Structure formats: structure tokens, C-alpha cells
């Protein structure tokens, strides 16, 4: 985790791209050798992509939807699309979960411009960390294996206010993640769930 906020003295969880990228990069430097960076957490899902509350998604790639830089070359940098750096066998092992692209921003809500970029990114889910964690992995070493496991708390293209739906469904999403994560770790570690 990224700890609690001491900078602004709020005491809330450090969320968003800055703390996620920094925490990931510092952890990679401290550990030196890493088999897999696993980003497990919550996300908003798109009903147009078949997402429902509590669904587990394995991210095939990541992109940003709030870095709008309309200058040649910088547009691509802003979107920052990266493929998941994990073995094909690892991705195939989780076919019982849904899959797709996770798009990232620093806001829980979204604007019209965000909606357009999320559609252009072909996003299945959206969060506030995945693209920055993948970027930090790539910055550390181009071959650092990264995989996202995301659980849906809210429906982005639904009709409920995001913050209300998120809070209402956080417990359901947490239970889905608590069920899915041991399966993922068991596969990665080559052990049965009961051995973990």
C-alpha cells in the first residue's frame, strides 16, 4: 500500500498516480529482484463491456485518460498505453475472470473528455493507479512483469453518482478480491490455495 497522507495532514490513504508510481519504484529498487508486480485493487467498470459489481478483471494493458496533451508526440505520451508484462500462460490461467484494458486517472469521477478518452482506449475498467504502476515497472526495467487484478465497485457508464456507488459496493468488491487474490497467488506460486 502507499500508506497514509502526512503531507496534507488528512490521514486518508495515499491514492492516485503519484503515490502509486513512487511506492512501486521505491519497492522495486529496495527488492532488487522481483518475479511479479501484482496490482490488486478496486475499479469502476463499464456496462458496455459487460462489467457488474464485484466482477474480477485481469488487465491486459493500461492507459491514461486524464493526461490530455494536444502536442505531437506528447499525445501518445499522455495516453501512455502499456501492455501487461506477464507471460501469456499467466494471462491464460485466469480465463474464469473477465479481462480488458484498465484506464487510469487521478479522479474518482470523470468528465466528458475523460469519457471520450476511455472509449478511445477501449477501456473495460478505470482506476486511479494501474497505469502509473505499470509505468514505474517499465521505468525500473523494461521486462519487469506486471499484472493487474481489479474488482468492480461502480459502473462508470451507469446512472448512479460514482462516490455513492463506490462506498455502497466497496464491501462486495473487497469480498470478491479476497476470493480471487489467493487463486492468483496460488497459480503464480505454483501452490494450491490451501497451501498459501
UniProtKB/TrEMBL annotation:
Q: Which GO terms describe its biological process?
A: L-methionine salvage from methylthioadenosine; nucleoside metabolic process
Pfam families per record? PNP_UDP_1
Domain Nucleoside phosphorylase stretches: 9-181
The protein's superkingdom reads: Eukaryota
Q: Which InterPro entries match?
A: MTAN, Nucleoside_phosphorylase_d, Nucleoside_phosphorylase_sf
GO MF annotation, one: methylthioadenosine nucleosidase activity
Q: Which SUPFAM superfamilies match?
A: Purine and uridine phosphorylases
Coiled-coil parts of chain:
none
Question: What is this protein identified as?
Answer: Nucleoside phosphorylase domain-containing protein
Protein species of origin: Thalassionema nitzschioides
